[in-house]
């Protein structure tokens, strides 16, 4: 029961964490997007954070410090831009679609927790890199890991979200990849459905 509770918290954390700093207003103004959905916001914020994590992965900075710093920055942004963020938090015209998205994300996360097996490539190539960062290792230490020439960003992000939960269960970090997978599907589905509606109305 405790594990499910923390898993629910992890899911909610992802949904809140990747809502900022970009919002619908910024995206439509500077990225020339039209009819931006919450899933578009998630996708672009995820790409932004992947870039941030890539840069941070080369420095010897504690992961806890990185997460707490990012959360603090988010709180400051929300405080100074509360009206903007509250207005674009969720497109309430599609609240049932978002509820479906949440249920899918939670159910698949529970599925991972009930069967947290890693494939041969996960164990042989990626796990030790993630473990390196989880235990306070640095980028230089990766030369001692198996297939050290493989990219390190994925394991670094895995270790970031692995490290923030009190249970310290590695599969909590892998939920990030589930998040990307589901958000991408819902973002594409929403845009495709909008295009169909537009053509029908025309």
Estimated helix fraction: over 70%
The overall pLDDT average reads 84
Q: What gross morphology would you assign? A: globular
What's the total number of strands?
0
Decide which structural class fits the backbone: mainly alpha
Order of helices and strands: HHHHHHHHH
Number of domains: 1
User: So how many helices?
Assistant: 9
Name the quaternary structure: single chain
Quick structural summary:
It contains nine helices and no strands.
Textual characterization of the structure:
The protein has 202 residues and is mostly helical. It has one domain. 71% of the residues lie in helices and 0% in strands. The chain contains 9 helices and no strands.
């Amino acid at each position: 029961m405790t594990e499910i509770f923390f898993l629910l918290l992890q899911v909610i954390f992802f949904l809140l964490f990747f809502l900022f700093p970009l919002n619908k207003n910024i995206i439509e103004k500077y990225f020339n997007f039209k009819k931006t959905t919450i899933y578009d916001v998630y996708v672009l914020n995820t790409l932004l954070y992947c870039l941030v994590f890539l840069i941070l992965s080369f420095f010897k900075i504690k992961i806890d410090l990185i997460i707490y710093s990012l959360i603090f920055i988010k709180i400051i942004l929300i405080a100074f831009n509360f009206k903007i963020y509250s207005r674009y938090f969720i497109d309430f015209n599609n609240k049932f679609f978002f509820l479906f998205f949440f249920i899918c994300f939670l159910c698949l996360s529970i599925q991972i927790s009930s069967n947290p097996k890693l494939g041969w490539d996960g164990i042989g190539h990626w796990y030790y890199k993630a473990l390196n960062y989880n235990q306070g290792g640095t980028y230089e230490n990766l030369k001692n890991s198996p297939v050290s020439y493989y990219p390190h960003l994925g394991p670094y992000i895995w270790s970031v979200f692995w490290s923030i939960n009190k249970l310290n269960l590695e599969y909590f970090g892998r939920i990030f990849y589930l998040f990307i997978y589901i958000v991408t599907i819902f973002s594409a589905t929403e845009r495709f459905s909008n295009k169909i509606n537009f053509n029908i109305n025309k």
